[in-house]
Design a protein that fits this description.
The chain has 189 residues and is α+β, with helices and mostly antiparallel strands. It contains 4 helices and 10 strands; from the N terminus they run ββββββααααββββ.
């Protein structure tokens, strides 16, 4: 498993004094950055095709774990699983839980971010709560890949998902308190 960790501190200073830092939104902590885009601050991975991020805006921190990079077979394996499981919410959730376990739930927590331990413990149950929504999001992602059919995203307390209109990336976010666990995957080329 490829692992790329990006811990980012976001601070903006102006001559008149300090301005509060920006939240590490998906624009600040991402692996679905378009090639022509550039971040002024934050963390991104340019050659990833699948990743998980953990974001804690209260601490202005994010961690990105790469699951697949351009040119390897892992991306196609992930896409094949999503296609195969799209109509089976329980199996889809189990697949995503395994991916989360491999990518984010087993890594060490920085000592100053203990709240992540509780959020990580709560993540599997939260994912199960949104199993129907997760399957619907994956179905929307697959329809976009196959027919360029636009998907209306979901934004609920605890869960959101979108399919990028420009990039076609699937982005699913599971929120435990203020901590977000985000699964991102590129469409097939």
């Amino acid at each position: 498993m490829l692992r790329f960790v990006a811990a980012a501190m976001f601070a903006i200073a102006v001559s008149s004094g300090s301005v509060p830092a920006a939240d590490p939104t998906h624009e600040k902590c991402t692996c679905d950055l378009s090639r022509e885009s550039a971040l002024n601050n934050g963390a991104s991975v340019r050659n990833a095709t699948a990743c998980w991020s953990t974001e804690d805006p209260d601490r202005q921190w994010c961690d990105i774990t790469v699951q697949a990079i351009e040119g390897d077979n892992r991306h196609q394996t992930i896409i094949n699983e999503l296609v195969q499981l799209q109509n089976d919410p329980e199996s889809m959730t189990a697949f995503l839980q395994r991916q989360a376990e491999e990518s984010i739930l087993s890594s060490a927590v920085p000592p100053n971010i203990e709240i992540l331990n509780q959020a990580r413990a709560d993540l599997p149950a939260l994912m199960k709560t949104f199993d129907m929504r997760t399957s619907a999001c994956v179905q929307g992602f697959i329809r976009y890949q196959e027919r360029k059919e636009l998907f209306t995203g979901v934004d609920e307390v605890g869960f959101s998902c979108q399919v990028g209109n420009v990039t076609g990336w699937l982005r699913m976010s599971f929120r435990v308190g203020n901590v977000s666990f985000v699964f991102m995957v590129a469409p097939n080329a």
